[in-house]
Amino acid sequence: MSTTSDSDDDGAAAEKADFIYDLRRLISGVHASGSFAACGTIDSFVNPGIYIDPIGIVRLPLSVEDAQALAQTSHKAPFGKGNETLVDESVRKTWQINAANIRILNQDWQLCLDRILERVAEGLGIAGGPSSIRAELYKMLLYEKGAITEKVSGMFGTLIICLPSEHTGGAVCLRHGSQSERFDSSGNSVFDVVHEIEPIQTGYRWVLAYNLINRSQGPPQSASALDARIGQFTQALTRWQDLQDKPFYLAYPLDHEYTDRDLKLAYLKGDDFYRARHVAQSCEAHGKYYMLLGNMEMCITDQNSEEEMEKEAVLSLDHIVDPQGFDLLIASTRTISTTNLLRGESYEDREPDTQRGGNYLGNQYAEIDQFFKDSVSVGANKLRKRAEWFDRL
Question: What pTM value is reported for the model?
Answer without folding.
Answer: 0.58
